[in-house]
Design goal:
Strand 5 and strand 6 form a beta hairpin. The longest helix has 19 residues. Helix 1 runs antiparallel to helix 2. Strands 1, 2, 3, 4, 7, 9, 11, 12 and 13 form a nine-stranded mixed β-sheet that branches. The chain has a four-stranded antiparallel β-sheet with strand order 5-6-10-8, with no helix packed on it. It is 21% helix and 29% strand. With 299 residues, the protein is an alpha+beta fold.
Length: 299
């Protein structure tokens, strides 16, 4: 019993002790540790009456000492870092950008407070939209401008299309049917984009995409998000969608493209986070991209 349960307890401890920083509830971890501890102590039941009071007193003192240490000591270190999630969202129509860090409440505010770009700004700390991160806090502020798309001669000083607006383009072609349309999406210097809908679509097809006839591209309840990937940079996608015209006369949403190259200095906000981040924390992506540029649409 001790050999079997002891190995499982060690494996469970090493596997779950960092999951609360990912947004998981610690209640399951505590219940699992308690159950395994009971199983580890179960074999001592027939012999515990033979122990003198010295052994349980010594174990009790150890328990008190470890509880005090765990309550007083700082929970993170250079070898056991706190994971925080970074994303910068840029409105390509207005140029406004918002940088956010998502992490444990109380610690993520401390990290953001050390960043120069967040000084003098009132932090907006709310619950993240991502369901798997609902136990965490997302703090937002206006950060440094991103430069993920190289400036070219096509964006001239007198051009109507500004530099940030040129990051992604889309066009919508609506056919004879009132509930069918094709959205053409082009993202520059990226291979990943998304189309997010405010209301669910009922049918979907992407030109050139591989499909399996055994599976429907859209479930019975519809879909609100289409993720687009390409092997080459700057290639367009033609997304044909159908929606329920009886429930919604119009279809609205956002076209989003993502960039993740953090090795060239094109994301100064992420470079700032890496430079000023405490040694007991480490950054990661909350989604597929470090920078998300988006434009609104309505059909």
């Amino acid at each position: 019993m001790i050999i079997l349960v002891g190995q499982v307890a060690l494996l469970l401890t090493s596997a779950l002790y960092q999951t609360p920083s990912d947004g998981n509830s610690p209640l399951f971890i505590y219940l699992a540790f308690a159950a395994l501890t009971v199983l580890l102590l179960a074999p001592t039941g027939p012999f515990i009456h033979r122990f003198t009071y010295h052994i349980p007193t010594f174990l009790f003192l150890i328990c008190v000492a470890t509880v005090i240490y765990n309550l007083v000591a700082f929970p993170f270190s250079r070898d056991h870092r706190l994971k925080v999630y970074f994303v910068q969202r840029v409105n390509c129509e207005t140029g406004h950008n918002v940088v956010s860090l998502t992490g444990l409440d109380g610690y993520v505010q401390r990290i953001v407070g050390e960043l120069p770009s967040a000084q003098g700004q009132q932090l907006d700390c709310t619950t993240p939209e991502v369901a798997t991160r609902k136990e965490l806090k997302q703090c937002q502020w206006q950060g440094l401008d991103a430069k993920v798309v190289p400036k070219t001669a096509q964006v001239a000083p007198f051009d109507n299309n500004t530099y940030i607006a040129s990051w992604l383009n889309y066009s919508i072609h609506k056919g004879n049917h009132s509930n069918k349309a094709t959205i053409r999406v082009v993202g520059h210097n990226t291979r990943a984009c998304r189309v997010l809908f405010d209301s669910p679509i009922t049918a979907l097809s992407v030109d050139g995409a591989v499909s399996d006839p055994r599976f429907k591209p859209v479930g019975g309840d519809g879909a609100r998000e289409v993720r687009l990937w390409h092997r080459e940079f700057g290639q367009p996608w033609n997304v044909s969608v159908t929606w329920n015209a009886k429930e919604q006369s119009k279809l609205s949403g956002r076209v989003v493209c993502m960039w993740s190259d953090a090795n060239t200095g094109d994301i100064p906000a992420f470079d700032e986070v890496q430079h000023y981040l405490p040694v007991w924390a480490i950054p990661s992506k909350i989604s597929d991209g470090l920078v998300e540029g988006f434009k609104q649409f309505e059909i």
